[in-house]
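Sanity check record (used in CI):
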Amino acid sequence: MHYFLQKEKINKDGCTLRPDVIVNLPNGEQIVIDSKSTLLDFDSNDPEEKILQSTKQHIKDLISRNYSGAIENGPNIVLMFVPFDYIFHVISKSNDIEYARKNDIIIVCPTTIVQMLTFVHRLWMDKKQNDNIKEIISSAGDLIDKFCGFCESLSKVGKNINSASTSYNEAITRLVGKGGLHYRIKNLKNKGIESKELPEISVSISNADVSDVRPLEGVEKLFDDVDL
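Expected output for DNA recombination protein RmuC homolog:
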């Protein structure tokens, strides 16, 4: 949630406060917006003077409330919202804006607060986009790690196939080659030794072509040119 309405806060003096609006920023900071209807009282012979008096008093009230002291993470400012651009125009002709600014209070009107909130919205959109980019990079890194692991396993399989083929051919040679066990036992049979019939030895596997099976080398170099 990017904002809270009337959320209870306790300032550094231990006083319970309920700011009108608390706007959450993407970096974890918060900004308080205060809006009061006391500035809507124009029922006087000199409405501008009434506006200035009400504004001055409202600024003093905000100073005493110490809203910024109730926000753990924030830019240490309070936005004082006046509901009409006309009121802001009247205030801008006095020294109230400077007086408020010196006390970490920024006076805003409908026009300026829309700009401010648009900026905050853009910050949140940028954060979401950055989070998506980070997630994509993280997923890509995991994918590359798994691919490298697969290549390493495949390389081991290739080495084992070569090793198994070599060992098998050596065993077949010892069994059926000249001077091998099968040849010598057959000679004994020919000399009258009684026994079971000698089985036929299949050597088809020994002729399997594994010359193209070779270890995968340099897997770690596959992604040297990939810039994440």
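Residues 3-126 form a domain with the type ii restriction endonuclease, domain 2 fold (CATH 3.40.1560). If this sentence no longer matches the regenerated tokens, the check is flagged for review.
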